[in-house]
């Protein structure tokens, strides 16, 4: 939306060639900032010498840009299409394990990207997310490469599943974990009467997963604060989704697993399975979500419900992708309902009101 600058000036005789201002950042600015916020995670992969993950990301990046080139030869070009293709390629690479073959990933990605763009539409007109389809296709073609669930039924009966995994060695500790934990306990958590054990800092900073999107939760959290603060992304869907998923894990999960009542591990469900990363960058990809607040809330609630039954307490490697794929389909039904409600409102409210106004003016 835009407002005329003249209404914000006292001197209405001023003339400018740029009379409009945006109430929200433009699509171009949004894309540049999202790309900028993804770069720190790439830098961390370089610093941690995760070269296999970087090769995968490079493969999906090249595949996304190449498919966009082919697609634009057949369709009308969109101004920011290549920038969006770069973002989509990066996100896809982050969601694939480092052990996958970069060459195989390239051919799978370029095929899926082109087919989904050509069959379902390009940017903001596709009802299905190409990133999700690419990851699921890679999973189906070589399931063994993706890490398994880290949790067993016996693990879920523990009151603190995340701590159990840390103590078991499933989450590698970063070198400064003990020093940072001691500092936080002494200077922050001591005033709250809380003591956190060693390992949570590692889980929050870098859990060491083979899938890059699962690793740097702190960076993802900071990025989400920036994007929501500048209103570059809608905060409604992530908020409703996180609340729904967390509440179900906390209060309903123990009844299914036989664990302590109302003691489900929220930390584990949010810091594994790429929950934060996928919620921020994939769940509300352009063109795949409803447009009204009621529709978005329903979309997010159903996504949280599906996440609980598909991903459980967490540590799922591809479960979130199946959640989004299902929600892309359900979103179509929600959007049809939105269109029906809007049409009904126009016919029953706006049209009669316009008729009354015309009658008054006669």
Write a structural description.
The protein has 362 residues and is mainly α. The chain is 63% helix and 2% strand. It has 15 helices and 2 strands. Strands 1-2 form a two-stranded antiparallel sheet. Helix 1 packs parallel to helix 3, helix 3 packs parallel to helix 5 and helix 11 packs parallel to helix 14. The chain is globular, with a radius of gyration of 23 Å. Mean pLDDT is 85; it is low at 1-10.
By secondary-structure content and strand pairing, the structural class works out as mainly alpha
- What does the largest sheet look like? 2 strands, antiparallel
Described by its quaternary structure, the protein is single chain
Taken in chain order, the helices and strands follow as: EEHHHHHHHHHHHHHHH
pLDDT below 50 for ≥5 consecutive residues: which ranges?
1-10
User: Considering DSSP H and I runs of 4 or more, what fraction of the residues is helical?
Assistant: 55-70%
Mean pLDDT: 85
**What is the rounded distance between the termini?**
34 Å
Q: Number of helical segments?
A: 15
- List how many beta strands DSSP finds: 2
Radius of gyration: 23 Å
In percent, how much strand structure appears in the residues? Answer: under 5%
Spatial shape: globular
Cross-sheet strand order for the largest sheet: 1-2
């Amino acid at each position: 939306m835009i407002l005329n600058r003249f209404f914000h000036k006292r001197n209405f005789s001023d003339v400018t060639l740029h009379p409009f201002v945006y109430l929200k950042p433009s699509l171009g600015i949004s894309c540049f900032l999202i790309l900028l916020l993804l770069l720190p995670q790439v830098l961390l992969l370089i610093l941690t010498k995760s070269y296999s993950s970087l090769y995968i990301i490079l493969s999906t990046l090249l595949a996304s840009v190449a498919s966009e080139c082919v697609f634009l030869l057949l369709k009308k070009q969109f101004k920011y299409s290549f920038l969006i293709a770069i973002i989509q390629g990066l996100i896809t690479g982050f969601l694939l394990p480092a052990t996958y073959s970069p060459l195989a990933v390239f051919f799978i990605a370029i095929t899926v990207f082109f087919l989904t763009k050509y069959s379902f539409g390009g940017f903001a007109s596709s009802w299905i997310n190409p990133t999700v389809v690419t990851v699921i296709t890679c999973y189906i073609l070589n399931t063994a490469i993706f890490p398994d669930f880290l949790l067993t039924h016996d693990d879920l009966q523990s009151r603190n599943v995340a701590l159990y995994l840390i103590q078991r060695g499933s989450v590698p500790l970063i070198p400064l974990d003990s020093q940072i934990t001691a500092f936080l306990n002494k200077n922050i958590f001591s005033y709250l009467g809380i003591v956190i054990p060693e390992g949570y800092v590692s889980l929050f900073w870098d859990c060491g997963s083979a899938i890059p999107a699962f690793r740097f939760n702190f960076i993802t959290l900071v990025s989400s604060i920036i994007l929501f603060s500048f209103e570059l992304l809608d905060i409604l869907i992530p908020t409703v989704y996180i609340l729904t998923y967390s509440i179900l894990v906390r209060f309903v999960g123990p009844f299914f697993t036989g664990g302590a009542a109302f003691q489900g591990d929220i930390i584990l469900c949010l810091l594994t399975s790429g929950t934060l990363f996928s919620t921020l960058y994939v769940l509300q990809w352009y063109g795949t979500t409803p447009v009204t607040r009621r529709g978005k809330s329903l979309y997010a609630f159903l996504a949280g419900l599906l996440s609980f039954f598909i991903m459980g307490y967490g540590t799922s490697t591809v479960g979130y992708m199946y959640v989004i794929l299902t929600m892309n389909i359900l979103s179509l039904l929600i959007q049809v309902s939105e269109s029906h409600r809007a049409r009904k409102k126009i016919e029953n409210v706006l049209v009669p009101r316009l008729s009354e106004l015309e009658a008054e003016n006669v």
